[in-house]
From TrEMBL:
Transmembrane parts of this sequence: 6-24, 31-60, 66-84, 104-121, 127-143, 150-168, 188-208, 245-264, 270-290, 302-326, 414-435, 447-464
Keyword flag Transmembrane: yes
Coiled coil residues, start to end: none
Keyword terms of this UniProt record: Membrane, Transmembrane, Transmembrane helix
Species assigned in the record: Paenibacillus phyllosphaerae
Keyword check for Lyase: no
Name the UniProt record assigns to this protein: TRAP-type C4-dicarboxylate transport system permease large subunit
Length: 465
């Protein structure tokens, strides 16, 4: 049965287009989302008080949906902080430096270590965890600092973050917006992440070696910057034997978490909770060992620092997520049953209408999701717009009749590769600062490999839908 579209549907669609335009212009979207929520509430209820209250309530709804993700990231950052200050991170990666004897080994070694670390710690903390130790080794064997930054970006902010298989923050956002289980989006993303990762990293390495051979390579170094800046924090002295023991024990604990996920079939929130609980215990144990009598107070201080980071990162995400949650079940919860009879949510209704009036196919759907994901990443967050990618994927899959999980995963991959820290200069600052290179030069070097990877990944997605 065809649903008759109401003013709510058209207003919602207009605001989506407007949001895309704001992202293209690199303008903030919070005000637009707030106006959109208020407008939808006013049209639905014709009540000023309910519409105003709906703004706050939609934020509460979004925070409830995102709280697990915000908490796990905050806790991971807090734990990473104490590992850096105590020098345990240096001890953890030190044995791996012996394998980095050539520029090629340094590039792929830094990349793979960054990827594995980012799966557990997220890329920004992972950059700090390994950058200070591995960068000097890489430069010593002939890999330019800019080459090390490229590897950190593509493997960490690209491959690891776009899949996010351990912490599961990204698939949680897109899956919720698309009305799918987290596990479905994660499984669908595996071939896309592999294709995107392989092509972009190989292309980046080939371009780097070609330009170095031809003499056209530019290091993009920034005077006075670099990994030395990581040493500005006061270090906490630990006996070498204690550092070694903890450096062995911590990876073992996280490896046991991964094993438990497979054995106990833990996914989504359950898997995140296991990793988060382990990180909290590690944080407490290391802090008590390192700070002794000040351990109780320092534990709280590390957690506060982690929470500050988490809410700072997700501050721009909450308003836009609140708006896009209204496209599904949140609308009824906020404003009651004000949609037309037979409606399955604004986004689903738009998808059905699109299927009835516009000829769509797998190719058009895949290209549209890649473009949409890339556009949402232009704000340099990578996360603030993936709810939009999930909603658009739901819309197009309803029109096509299949491929919701693949389209959602494709939008997620495109959004995070563009905005999560590989192409947008202001999102590249962590890796660029640690390696002492210009974020604009780093973005320029990443541009061609990432675009090639996106094109290839889009083609693969066409056959998987």
């Amino acid at each position: 049965m065809e649903i008759q579209l109401s003013a709510l549907h058209w207003v919602y669609l207009i605001f989506i287009v407007f949001l895309l335009g704001m992202l293209i212009k690199r303008r903030d979207t919070t005000l637009v989302c707030v106006v959109g929520i208020f407008t939808l509430g006013l049209i639905a209820t014709e009540s000023l008080s309910v519409s105003v209250s709906g703004i706050f309530n939609s934020f509460v709804y979004a925070i409830k949906e995102l709280m697990g993700t915000i908490l796990i990231i905050s806790i991971i950052v807090a734990m990473s902080r104490v590992l850096i200050i105590t020098g345990i991170n240096e001890t953890m990666v030190q044995p791996l430096t012996r394998f980095m004897r050539t520029p090629a080994l340094a590039y792929w070694g830094i990349g793979l270590i960054m990827m594995v670390t980012s799966f557990f710690f997220w890329p920004s903390p992972a950059v700090a965890l390994i950058g200070a130790v591995l960068l000097p080794v890489a430069v010593r064997v002939g890999l330019p600092a800019l080459g090390a930054a490229i590897a950190m970006n593509l493997f960490g902010h690209g491959i690891a973050l776009s899949g996010d298989y351990i912490i599961q923050g990204a698939p949680k956002l897109t899956a919720d917006a698309a009305g799918l289980p987290v596990s479905a989006v994660m499984q669908a993303s595996i071939p896309l992440v592999i294709v995107m990762g392989l092509i972009s990293t190989v292309a980046a390495y080939w371009f780097m070696r070609r330009d170095m051979k031809n003499g056209t390579w530019r290091d993009g170094l920034v005077a006075g910057a670099g990994a030395s800046g990581l040493g500005t924090d006061a270090k906490v002295a630990l006996p070498a034997s204690t550092r070694r023991t903890l450096a062995i024990l911590i990876p073992i604990l996280f490896a046991l978490d991964v094993i438990a996920m497979f054995v106990l079939d833990l996914q989504g929130g359950d898997a995140t909770a296991l990793v988060g609980g382990t990180a909290v215990l590690i944080l407490i144990a290391v802090t008590l060992i390192a700070h002794r009598n000040r351990g109780l107070e320092e534990t709280t201080a590390y957690l506060i620092e982690g929470f500050q980071f988490g809410f700072k990162v997700f501050g721009p995400v909450i308003p836009i997520a609140a708006f896009f949650y209204l496209g599904d079940a949140a609308f009824t919860e906020m404003f009651g049953k004000t949609l037309p009879d037979g409606s399955h949510g604004i986004v689903n209704d738009l998808g059905v209408a699109l299927a009835n009036h516009v000829p769509l196919n797998e190719a058009i759907g895949a290209v549209t999701l890649t473009v949409t994901g890339a556009i949402t990443g232009l704000d340099g967050s990578g996360f603030s717009g993936i709810s939009l990618a999930g909603s658009v994927a739901q819309l197009f899959s309803s029109a096509i009749g299949s491929g919701a999980d693949t389209l959602t995963a494709l939008g997620q991959v495109a959004a995070i590769w563009v905005g999560g820290g590989t192409l947008i200069p202001w999102a590249l600052i962590p890796a660029a600062a640690i390696c002492g290179v210009s974020p604009f030069e780093l973005a320029r070097r990443n541009l061609k490999p990432v675009l090639i990877g996106l094109a290839a990944t889009t083609v693969v997605a066409m056959f998987l839908i």
